[in-house]
Amino acid sequence: MTDSSAFARLRRKQFSQLDRSNVVYLDYTGACPVPKSLPEQHISNLSSNVYANPHSASLPSSAATAAFHRAKTTVLRFFNARDHELIFTANASSAIHLVAQTFPFQRDSTLYLTADNHNSVLALRESARMARCNTVLIPLESRLTLSQPLSYLYKHNAASSAPSLFAYPAQSNFSGVRHDLQLVHHARSKDIHVLLDAAAYAPTSALDLSRVQADFVPISFYKMFGYPTGIGALIVRKSALSVLRKNWFAGGTVKFVSVASDLHILHDGADAFQDGTVDFLSFPAIVNGIHLLSKIGMPNITKHVATVTHTFLHQIQHMRYANGARMALIYGPNLHDNTIPRGGTVAMDLLDSRGKRMDCHFVEREAGRRGIAIRAGCFCNPGCAERVFDIDGLSVAECVRKGYTAYDCTSGIGCFRVSFGMGTVKKDIKAFLAFVRELCNSYGAKF
Ligand SMILES: Cc1ncc(COP(=O)(O)O)c(C=O)c1O
To answer: InterPro entries this protein is in (predicted)?
Structure first.
């Protein structure tokens, strides 16, 4: 594998802290490392402008309001979101939570959830439960693709006037599988609203919301470009915004509140959902982050990550012990499943020479001792983990009944994940593969 000179240059210019600290960073699905230019530009902006709480009319307050509008317009334009509005939130989870709190589930509504979902999305089922409506689970095939999702969505009774919701990730944070964006169109044709979780997809792929007309799209900015943390967004289709029902108000969301008359009037549109004072100092940094991605070019990032991932899969799948046994087991699409669209997240385990899985937390610790950052566990995506390790609902329930969490008493659940992004270069892959060989030869060779 040769790095294109552009990405080698990007690494030197923006992510030199990785090399200076001898960190082999392979957790881009967790967070993108901080590109050097973003905090520098941010500090320079904050030291030459005066920003204040945007809820007043002073000049510093107006500067913050202008920065808010600039950030909002820049993000919406980046996603080509002409029919959408944007609400800033603390992160993708709070964007999803906002939908959970305000989507008007009724008894005849249906919530469609894919088994591949982050916990923050799975939690929508608790709002559905409160409304006593049905949750339908769309299961996974062995390669962690969705199992006939259309057969579930097309059974939906579009005649029901109760609003229904389908929630799925554009890209799995577990397996890297990219689920079909056309499902948005299919669900909407049956009058089902769609929450498309773009948290793991947006950092390495362009998402054109003028083509993919999802109703609710949560994102976290630190996953896309590393800095700032503590701010995300819910991008909402304008017509879907009017479906949401907000039964509370907060500072910033009201035109008017009276104590004497027990009345309040919410702002119109997205402003009714922007609770309290947003992290207004972050707005200039968001604009710079989006500019950085646009300058590199999302198609270039997609291509770079695809090349890195392909090389990685090719090399790791060919690693063998002296007895011919493979050293690694990939969960989800592997090299040979080239018809399954995937991003740069790979879930896997290391095996000993008899085919037994090594403990993923041991692998994570040993990697950490060598400066290699990977992630072990189920990555807040229990549905994928349960599918991979063949754990059914009854055994989970029995576990919990005994006072354990499912993952404590279901031996060996969990694996580890490596993930790539715009800062990944070939030496990262080389270092990880050398680590795998070393660990397998020292701990896994059992002849
Ligand atoms: C697919 C997906 N959705 C949602 C989230 C939640 O993001 P955050 O922790 O930034 O709220 C994550 C985080 O890893 C994720 O990968």
So the answer is: Aminotrans_V_dom (IPR000192), PyrdxlP-dep_Trfase (IPR015424), PyrdxlP-dep_Trfase_major (IPR015421), PyrdxlP-dep_Trfase_small (IPR015422)
